[in-house]
């Protein structure tokens, strides 16, 4: 009865499409890795900002819970509803206009439902660069990137999504439209409200549009893959490149030998390097210089490392095909890992100087807790973000009697070590529903209280993405942080 009554009310809203058939809704009720499932009365697709406002006014008045959804590429259970029922999914896919691109202002204004790759292409067509890049860029939506403060491979030079947002348009739980679409670089007129919504994962408001920062398109890109003798050498090389090419290192990616082996087994295209090594680096340099100049500088900086065999092999891409092969290998790791087995994935960040300490501390703990599991590391070493994956076969994981308990046990081993070294348990993937318990374990009570105050102010009825980001917390518990 609720579904039909609500459906009739929603289809009466202008510029709204509603799905109610279970088969039509199914793809929106499970995440892409098929690890998080939920239910909903309806899946709603607004076509305009006003339509989002009207839908939220209706839901807020009736106490209907709303789960915002973009490209559904979350790995933390943040993009699908829970199993409690009595809710709608609000998908922004129809709101996909590139509203404006201004090359002179180095800015663009887009709808939140724009696919990231389309945003990149629109900027490129005007001779500009939008530098956010990640493996899901062909399906993730810019609103979701902002809501989770996405990272990606370009953070070392351009920063997280937070650094790329100039202004936001947001609809709050009661339907108010916050029009903060501005392309100003300086606007010191009180609290910068856009920052409240970036990284809030749809719990404080629904992002419907954004003004984004563009950059001059680099004159050239120089991309290399290095096979490295050990982790200490990989980190030292990273420091050498950042200092020797200050401001021009646009990516610095670290992969363990175990990760590259998985890509060799399952990738559509094999990695461009066959040389076995315990660690690999993917390096990209870009800027206003000629490519040959960057190649010469890179060869000069790497010369001593090659002589001492800290770098055991190196490929510097000589054309776009080779560059595509190197990046294809890097961006293919998630798909290959799914084929390899069950990866217990952890998205941590550490001070750069503590990365080696973390790896050395965690490996024996994992070996003791889960014999036979294989540690796999892939990360944005230029900014300290590691994806530490404990890989086991699908069959071995299926035989685990308490799978959730195992996830939690391994997670605490990894996160405790990261926190002890000044790191964090979530670097770029967000909290979703997966890490709300970790918020309670690792966040200080003062932080949780402040976050809850914001939630109460912006969404007093608690209809927006309930059960995400904030734990169910009474204030009586004592977080470990």
Q: If you had to describe this structure to a student in words, what would you say it looks like?
A:
- The chain has helices at 2-11, 22-25, 49-62, 116-125, 142-147, 155-158, 194-197, 231-244, 257-266, 291-307, 320-331, 333-340, 355-369, 394-398, 403-420, 436-442, 445-458; strands spanning 16-19, 42-46, 65-69, 87-91, 98-102, 107-111, 128-129, 165-171, 177-180, 206-213, 215-216, 220-228, 249-256, 279-287, 311-316, 342-349, 374-380, 385-392.
- Residues 474-481 have low confidence and may be disordered.
- By secondary structure, it is α+β, with helices and mostly antiparallel strands.
- The strands form four sheets. It has a seven-stranded antiparallel sheet with strand order 15-12-14-13-17-18-16, with helices on both faces.
- Helices cover 36% and strands 22% of the residues.
- It is globular, with a radius of gyration of 23 Å.
- It contains 17 helices and 18 strands.
């Amino acid at each position: 009865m609720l579904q039909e009554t609500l459906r009739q009310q929603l289809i009466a809203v202008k510029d709204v499409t509603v799905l109610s058939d279970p088969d039509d809704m199914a793809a929106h009720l499970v995440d892409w890795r098929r690890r998080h499932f939920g239910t909903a009365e309806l899946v709603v697709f607004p076509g305009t900002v006003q339509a989002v406002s009207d839908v939220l006014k209706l839901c807020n008045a009736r106490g209907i819970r709303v789960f915002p959804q973009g490209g559904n590429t979350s790995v933390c259970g943040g993009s699908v509803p829970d199993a409690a029922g009595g809710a709608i999914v609000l998908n922004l896919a129809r709101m996909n206009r590139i509203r404006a691109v201004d090359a002179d202002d180095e800015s663009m204004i887009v709808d939140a439902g724009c696919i990231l790759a389309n945003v990149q292409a629109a900027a490129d067509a005007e001779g500009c660069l939008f530098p956010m890049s990640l493996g899901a860029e062909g399906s993730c939506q810019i609103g979701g990137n902002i809501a989770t403060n996405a990272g990606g491979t370009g953070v070392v030079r351009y920063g997280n999504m937070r650094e790329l947002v100039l202004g936001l348009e947001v609809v709050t739980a009661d339907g108010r439209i916050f029009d903060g679409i501005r392309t100003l670089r300086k606007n010191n007129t009180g609290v910068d409200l856009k920052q409240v919504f970036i990284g809030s994962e749809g719990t404080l408001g629904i992002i419907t549009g954004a003004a984004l920062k563009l950059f001059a398109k680099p004159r050239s890109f120089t991309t290399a893959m290095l096979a490295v003798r050990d982790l200490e050498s990989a980190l030292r090389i990273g420091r050498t490149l950042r200092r020797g090419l200050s401001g021009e290192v646009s990516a610095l990616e670290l992969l363990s030998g175990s990760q590259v082996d998985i890509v060799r087994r399952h990738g559509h295209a094999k990695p461009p390097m066959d040389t076995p090594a315990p660690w690999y680096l993917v390096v990209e340099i870009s800027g206003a210089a000629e490519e040959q100049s960057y190649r010469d500088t890179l060869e000069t900086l790497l010369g001593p490392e090659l002589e001492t065999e800290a770098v055991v092999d190196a490929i510097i891409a000589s054309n776009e095909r080779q560059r595509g092969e190197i990046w294809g290998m890097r961006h293919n790791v998630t798909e290959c890992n799914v084929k390899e087995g069950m990866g217990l994935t952890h998205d941590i960040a550490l001070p750069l100087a503590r990365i080696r300490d973390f790896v050395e501390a965690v490996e024996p703990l994992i070996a003791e807790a889960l014999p036979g599991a294989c540690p796999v590391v892939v990360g944005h070493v230029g900014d300290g973000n590691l994806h530490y994956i404990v890989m086991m076969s699908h069959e071995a994981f299926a035989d685990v009697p308490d799978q959730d308990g195992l996830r939690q046990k391994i997670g605490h081993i990894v996160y405790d070590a990261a926190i002890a070294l000044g790191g964090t348990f979530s670097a770029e993937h967000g909290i979703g529903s997966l890490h709300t318990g970790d918020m309670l374990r690792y966040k200080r009570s003062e932080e949780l209280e402040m976050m809850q105050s914001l939630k109460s102010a912006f969404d007093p009825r608690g209809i927006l993405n309930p059960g995400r980001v904030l734990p169910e917390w009474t204030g009586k518990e004592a977080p470990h942080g």
